[in-house]
């Protein structure tokens, strides 16, 4: 088992918080950070768009990726939500163990 960061964005704080609580209650995440609102600029359907979003950082295990992705897709309001996974290749070993222990087997 390895630890994993999953990144997504939410258009509002309450939605991001609801997602975090859902993932934590299901033991699909050990910790979820919601970063204060930021400006996002992106190309969508041939146009450059600008919006405000709340970045969400989810700490989990690699073997739970698909379940986390499915959970995000079920509740996310976007047609195409950002869901990006980044392996944690280094970190404080006690913290990594904590992530693994706090998520379901």
Provide the descriptors you would attach to this structure in a database record.
5-stranded antiparallel β-sheet; alpha+beta; elongated; 3 helices; Alpha-Beta Plaits; 105 residues
Compact description:
The chain has 105 residues and is of the alpha+beta class. The protein has a single domain (3-102), classed as Alpha-Beta Plaits (2-Layer Sandwich).
Protein architecture, described:
With 105 residues, the chain is of the alpha+beta class. It has one domain: Alpha-Beta Plaits. It contains three helices and five strands. It has helices at residues 13-25, 65-75, 93-102, and strands at residues 3-10, 31-34, 38-44, 47-61, 84-87. Strands 1, 2, 3, 4 and 5 form a five-stranded antiparallel β-sheet that branches. A hairpin with a 2-residue loop joins strand 3 and strand 4 (47-61). The radius of gyration is 14 Å and the shape is elongated.
Tell me the name of the CATH class: Alpha Beta
Number of helices: 3
CATH overall fold name? Alpha-Beta Plaits
Helix content: 25-40%
Straight-line distance between termini: 10 Å
Profile the largest sheet: 5 strands, antiparallel
Structure class: alpha+beta
Helix and strand string, N-terminal first?
EHEEEHEH
- Rg: 14 Å
Give the helix/strand layout.
Layout: E1 3-10, H1 13-25, E2 31-34, E3 38-44, E4 47-61, H2 65-75, E5 84-87, H3 93-102
Antiparallel strand pairs: 1-4, 1-5, 2-4, 3-4
